[in-house]
């Protein structure tokens, strides 16, 4: 079977780990990597990541012209850059390239543009694209319906220098209709990211938790999303929605 051709937008701390996950998956071929700076221009992501092959040519965003996507076709574009990145790949949608966006926070005009591209091609947007966190989101909502009177607290733990409250924790609280006072933050060294939802009931507690051991988990989420999108018509999708459908389709019957 022919490998799925992937283009990656962004080659920062997380982008590098995402690139490495695609390079290590034989179902995919990392065709190119676009980055904002001109550093390592025309080198290969594979070489920079310690692999003995020439895959994933590094291209500066300054060299992205109107015909780039026609001359460098891929099946799916994966975006781990920044909010404004979507403005540089509008033509990808016109070429029918599926788009996976894992940008943590968009400005309204940037999000509006991304949504407009979904009218032309399949677009999956999830600020936290890890598989585990999206399973956690759906499981928590189901449990809240089962035990609507439970006390609920959200605990988020991250590395020591993370200043703000986790966006994922805020999303969990919003989905469960909790005030911010129910979100508890812990900052200590040695933690990449951990979220726990505690349901307190008389004589028992239920704890749902997810921990990221490495940012490489974002790469695994992007791989899952890319595989899903290639079978879909144009439209706007989310990891949460995909996982919810899978829950719905796989409820055990006894």
Compute the gyration radius: what is it?
A: 19 Å
How confident overall, as mean pLDDT? 94
Strand arrangement, major sheet: 3-2-1-4-5-6-11
Portion of residues in helices? 25-40%
Could you give the distance between the termini?
A: 38 Å
Supply the number of helical segments: 9
Shape call: globular
What oligomeric state is this?
A: single chain
- How would a textbook summarize the main sheet? 7 strands, parallel
Order of helices and strands: EHEHEHEHEHEHEHEEEHEH
* Number of beta strands: 11
Percentage of β-strand residues: 25-35%
Structure, explained:
- Strand 1, helix 1 and strand 2 form a beta-alpha-beta unit.
- The longest helix is centred in the middle third of the chain and has 16 residues.
- This protein has 254 residues and is α/β, with parallel strands linked by helices.
- Helix 1 packs across helix 8 and helix 6 packs across helix 9.
- It is built from nine helices and eleven strands.
- The model has no long low-confidence stretch (mean pLDDT 94).
- The protein is globular, with a radius of gyration of 19 Å.
- A seven-stranded parallel sheet has the order 3-2-1-4-5-6-11, with helices on both faces. A four-stranded mixed sheet has the order 8-7-9-10, covered by helices on one side.
Q: What is this entry, summarized?
A:
With 254 residues, this protein is α/β, with parallel strands linked by helices. It has nine helices and eleven strands.
Give the helices and strands, then pairings.
Elements: E1 4-9, H1 13-23, E2 28-35, H2 45-48, E3 57-60, H3 68-71, E4 76-79, H4 90-94, E5 98-101, H5 108-117, E6 122-125, H6 131-146, E7 151-158, H7 167-175, E8 183-187, E9 193-201, E10 204-212, H8 216-229, E11 235-237, H9 239-249
Parallel strand pairs: 1-2, 1-4, 2-3, 4-5, 5-6, 6-11, 7-8
Antiparallel strand pairs: 7-9, 9-10
Helix pairs in contact: 1-8, 6-9
